[in-house]
Amino acid sequence: MTVIPCEQDPRLRAEIERFAEVLKTQAHKLRSHGLEESSFYSSPIFRGAIEKVRGEFSATMRGKREFVQRVLNHMEDGGFIAGWDRTRPKARNGYYVQLNSGGLAVIDLKGCLDGENTNKFERSREADEFITWSLCTNSGADPRRNAWSGIYTRLSAEMISRSKRVDGVVIWDMICGTLGRPCPKLRPLDGEVRRTSLGPFLTPPPCIYVFPAEIPSLASPQSTARALGEVELLAAFQKAFGGRDEEVNYVDFEVGKQGDQLFRRTVIRRGGVVQHASEMTAIQRV
Fold first, then answer.
1. Does the structure show a pLDDT above 80 at 91?
2. What DSSP designation does 88 have?
3. What is the rounded average pLDDT of the residues 187-216?
4. Which candidate, 140, 145, 147, 146, places its Cα nearest to that of 9?
5. How far apart (Å, rounded) are the C-alpha atoms in residues 200 and 67?
6. Partner of 129 for a Cys bridge, out of 51, 73, 105, 240, CB 3.0 to 4.6 A?
7. How many Å apart are CA 20 and CA 12, to the nearest integer?
8. CA pair distance 13, 9, nearest whole angstrom
9. Angle at Cα 79 formed by Cα 77 and Cα 83, nearest 5°?
10. What is the C-alpha separation between 249 and 18, in angstroms, rounded?
């Protein structure tokens, strides 16, 4: 029972940790800097270089945006959506998608969902559908931790406490199905090739999470996820990239109150089975 089918490769994680340890103990030998070993690791040179590289990796969106645009071009070319645009002037969201029904879906691009940036979103008033799309390109990150942290710890609390509706989540990027993040959807069970070629990317089907139509309240404490077909953009993702019904995730919310404290419970179902569920937990928001 898992919040997302893929999992962190323990061998890759161990190798990353070993290399990180080498950096922490051997980096002073990489070039002449005029410092003693003990001084080097507390110096602005070492710390500044680490932060610079970290910032460059986290800030770059070129590869991510190329992947997103190729995905949306593929969907438009195949007739799964009517069209799409980049962010409009002064708008905070990533992409605007014209649905075949005539409606408008807004995609809010995020990185790994365990960060505070996941909470920072505003649903456009013109959006008929609002979707969070996580592109977590850190091969060392734990996909299960990220998915649960984003959906339960961050999104559900933000949605319920501030009445900010999200219609669903897509977790999917260009390292899905690579050595850095093996995808169980690609296991050859029936000989079907489940990859889609998008220029330089060869991708498996996305992981899709369908949310309820209404945010739960004390007056109506339980909100059950909609059917996939009720969220047109998510259904388009599923159809365009060969997803299967049993792979779609459905997210239910429940709220309650103890004294003055609001509590919520989050449940994720897949294939008709509860995959992951929280206890009733206090919502803590400032």
1. no
2. P
3. 89
4. 140
5. 9
6. 105
7. 12
8. 6
9. 70
10. 35
Amino acid found at 185 = K
- Compute the half-sphere exposure of residue 147: CA atoms within 13 Å on the CB side of its CA: 25
Encoded tokens for 257: 């109150």
Residue 258: exposure state from Cβ atoms within 10 A (0-12, 13-18, ≥19)? exposed
Give every CB contact of residue 231 below 8 A, 6+ residues apart in sequence. Answer: 129, 131, 167, 168, 210
User: In the structure, what pLDDT confidence band is assigned to residue 33 with cuts at 50, 70 and 90?
Assistant: confident
What is the CB neighbour count within 10 angstroms for residue 283?
15
Q: How confident is the model at residue 155 (pLDDT cuts 50, 70, 90)?
A: very high
- Taking only the tens place, the pLDDT of each residue in 208-217 is 999 999 999 9
CA dihedral for 76, 78, 79, 80, sign (positive or negative): negative
Rounded CA-CA distance 66/198 in Å is 10
Could you tell me the two tokens for 226? 């909609």
Residue 146 parent element (H or E): helix 143-148
Question: Residue holding tokens 């910032």?
Answer: 55
Q: Are β-strands 207-210 and 201-203 bridged in parallel, bridged antiparallel, or unpaired?
A: unpaired
Local structure of residue 3 (DSSP, 8 states): S
69 vs 60, residue with greater confidence = 69
For residue 94, what pLDDT is reported? 81
Buried b (16+ CB within 10 A) or exposed e, 36-50: eeeeeeeeebbeeee
- Least Cα distance to 283 among 251, 260, 250, 267 occurs for 260
